[in-house]
């Protein structure tokens, strides 16, 4: 596979024009934005819980173990990271305490925090772990303990 920053016109030919590039990017952005509700997917467990974990990838396995043992804790497992259905996520985390555990420095956290502030989440907190080791269930429990 060969990837470049080359833009193309509507006819498919390469162009170097800033105008054509801008037109292409706006068209692609709008195409995705219009289909957000169709493209976005997540799994919700214990929807009525006042403590929610928003996770994706391997971290979701640890979070899911917690929700199976404690119905006071809910899980929003993101299956799609972009585009994110802000209205759906906002309605799910409204009036909740939210933990976003990530094996990085918080790539999704800032989006979830922004949505939480807009929709009235009580608190949105990051649990960040780097270095390659997984996030274990007991680490998540410790992070949400003040809310239990």
Protein described:
By secondary structure, the chain is an alpha/beta fold. It contains six helices and seven strands. It folds into two domains: 7-34, no CATH class; 39-147, Rossmann fold. The longest helix has 17 residues, at 18-34. It is elongated and about 55 Å long. The mean pLDDT is 93.
Count of discrete domains: 2
Q: How many individual β-strands?
A: 7
- Oligomeric status of the shown chains? single chain
How much of the sequence is in beta strands? 15-25%
Helix vs. strand class: alpha/beta
What's the CATH architecture name of the largest domain? 3-Layer(aba) Sandwich
Task: Determine the CATH topology of the largest domain.
Answer: Rossmann fold
User: Which bin fits the share of residues in helices?
Assistant: 25-40%
According to CATH, what is the class of the largest domain?
Answer: Alpha Beta
Mean pLDDT, all residues: 93
* Low-pLDDT residue intervals, each spanning 5 or more residues: none
Instruction: Give a quick account of the main beta sheet: strands, pairing sense, barrel closure.
Output: 5 strands, mixed
Count of helices? 6
Q: In angstroms, what separates the terminal alpha carbons?
A: 49 Å
- Main sheet: which strands, in order across? 3-5-4-6-7
Looking at the structure, what is the overall shape? elongated
**Gyration radius over CA:** 19 Å
Order of helices and strands: EEHHEEHEHEHEH
């Amino acid at each position: 596979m060969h990837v470049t920053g080359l833009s193309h016109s509507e006819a498919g030919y390469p162009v170097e024009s800033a105008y054509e590039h801008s037109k292409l990017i706006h068209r692609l952005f709008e195409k995705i934005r219009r289909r957000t509700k169709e493209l976005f997917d997540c799994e919700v467990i214990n929807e009525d819980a006042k403590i929610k974990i928003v996770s994706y990838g391997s971290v979701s396995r640890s979070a899911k173990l917690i929700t199976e043992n404690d119905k006071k804790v809910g899980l929003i497992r993101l299956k799609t990271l972009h585009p994110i259905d802000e209205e759906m996520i906002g309605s799910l985390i409204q009036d909740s305490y939210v933990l976003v555990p990530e094996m990085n420095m918080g790539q999704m956290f800032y989006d979830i925090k922004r949505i939480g502030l807009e929709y009235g989440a009580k608190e949105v907190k990051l649990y960040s772990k780097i270095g390659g080791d997984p996030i274990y269930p007991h680490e998540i429990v410790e992070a949400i303990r003040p809310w239990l």
